[in-house]
Amino acid sequence: MDLIEKELSKEVIFRGKILSLEKYNVELPNKDISTREVVNHTGGVAILPIDNEGNIYLVKQYRFPIRKVLVEIPAGKFDSPNEDPLECGKRELAEEIGKQANKWIELGYIYTTPGFLAGKVYLYLAKELTEVGVNPDDGEFVEVLKVTTEEMKEMIKKGEITDSKSICAFYKYLLI
After folding, report:
1. Segment (H or E) for 19
2. 15, 28, 46, 52 - which has most CB atoms within 10 Å?
3. Whose CA is closest to 151, among 69, 72, 59, 56?
4. Where are the alpha helices (DSSP H) in the chain?
5. pLDDT in tens, 65-116
6. Residues in Cβ contact with 40 at an 8 Å cutoff, skipping those fewer than 6 apart
7. CA 93 to CA 144: how far, in whole Å?
């Protein structure tokens, strides 16, 4: 069976600084017509930073859309559509936890919620960390945590880490 949905029309509902909302009419594989609402996001990078002792650096920050403080790996959005993912990762690592890495390993990318959100999050492992000083973006407030691999496993198991990019990057790390 052909699973492709054919775009028939598109309406831009909202266009903001980092995302847009579009409404599509599509023809389904069975020829029925349906509607799709798509959020387009600039995309970004998430970094799993691990020091020479095997400690993982996480950040706690308030996430307004869900009205909760989450524990996550450092991450951020692209500053421009053509920004290199690795360069974005390097910038975000320094901004959020005040570190740079001498060794970067690509862990691939994920689509966080492909049912309605278009945008990739590239995942990296950052090793051989050195201190450069925290330099957060304006309006960004984070608390840095340092945990062991076992502690991170427990935090995920207990539901203390529920962020998809963090869980995915950590799992990919465990597979290498």
Report:
1. strand 19-27
2. 46
3. 56
4. 85-97, 149-157, 164-175
5. 999 999 999 999 999 889 999 999 999 999 999 999 999 999 999 999 999 9
6. 19, 20, 21, 22, 118, 119
7. 11
- Is-contact 24 9, C-beta < 8 A? yes
DSSP E strands, 31-176: 33-41, 44-49, 56-63, 68-72, 75-77, 99-111, 117-118, 120-131, 143-147
Tokens of 156: 């995920």
Q: Indicate the Cα dihedral angle 99, 102, 106, 112, nearest 10°.
A: 0
32 Cβ partners below 8 Å, 6+ apart? none
According to the model, what pLDDT value does residue 139 have?
A: 75
| Residue whose C-alpha is closest to residue 92's, from 46, 42, 58 | 46
Q: Calculate what percentage of the chain has a pLDDT beyond 70.
A: 99
